[in-house]
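Hello,

I think I submitted the iron/sulfur cluster job twice by accident. Can you confirm which output corresponds to this input? Input:
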Amino acid sequence: MNDPDLLLNLVYAIPVLLAVLVYLWLRRRSEQASLQALADAEQAGLTESASLHPVVDLERCIGSGGCARACPEEAIGVVGGKAVLVSPSACIGHGACAAACPVEAITLVFGSERRGVDIPAVTPQFETNVPGFVHCRRTRRHGTDPQGGRAGAAGDGHHRQAS
Ligand code: SF4
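Support: Only one job matched these inputs. Its output is below.
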């Protein structure tokens, strides 16, 4: 290889090498921040989400980091090439992470292995799978439900003991 060829190869190779090094450095820095957030959450005992939160299918996750970049709460990060909910208590459950995942590896769920929740399944007729309870629709305009009960804060409905 003569000198002009070598020079030309270097002109192409050096920027590519620099880009790879910067990418690896940013990735490493991001992972360290995620590990720190995870350690802080564990130390504070805040390892459970209060409500709706993402669960990552580790088989599907390719560690793209799209979820972490999409999360405004910095609740999710990438550790060891996989997405992890690093600050569960910071998650507000709006699902930006799930929408940003390119391989649909994130599902939003309530509850966890340690903190189960029983949310009644509701049929189109507003019957729940909990004996004795029906789901009542209410109008937002008047703040009342169709059966005359008073509604609370804004929401899609509430449950009422069937009479
Ligand atoms: S649901 Fe929202 S707050 Fe929670 S991890 Fe996903 S993007 Fe972040």
